[in-house]
Design a protein that fits this description.
- It is a single chain.
- By secondary structure, the protein is mainly α.
- About 80% of the residues lie in helices and about 0% in strands.
- The protein contains 5 helices and no strands.
- Helix 1 runs parallel beside helix 5 and helix 2 packs antiparallel against helix 3.
- The longest helix has 26 residues.
Length: about 110
């Protein structure tokens, strides 16, 4: 018989991770719009415009657009594989870490 506390502990850890990741990703999605303003303000200066475009491309909309294009190119009419909740949680942690680094670099 398996240990009765094994699954609830895993579920609790996933819940804590998602409670931390959700606000980080929400704030990042909002801050990802700021490079549009930076691009408008830096119009005419090629260096500042390229920096604003780089942040715009690597922000939330850029990654969502890239993911959509990637899925569209790899679409093969077959059903998508079911991903486990542990894998989704690991992806959320990785994306949250990326978002934190992106926001720290944008703040500079």
């Amino acid at each position: 018989m398996s240990e009765p506390g094994a699954k609830p502990r895993s579920t609790t850890i996933e819940l804590v991770v998602w409670c931390i990741a959700a606000p980080i990703l929400s704030v990042w999605a909002l801050l990802s719009m700021l490079p549009v303003v930076s691009l408008i303000r830096a119009w005419g200066d090629p260096g500042q415009s390229l920096i604003a475009l780089a942040f715009l491309a690597t922000g939330a909309l850029g990654l969502v657009g890239g993911a959509v294009v990637y899925r569209w190119l790899r679409w093969d009419q077959a059903a998508a594989p079911v991903v486990s909740s542990e894998t989704r949680t690991i992806r959320a942690v990785a994306l949250s870490a990326y978002a934190l680094v992106w926001m720290a670099l944008y703040a500079l």
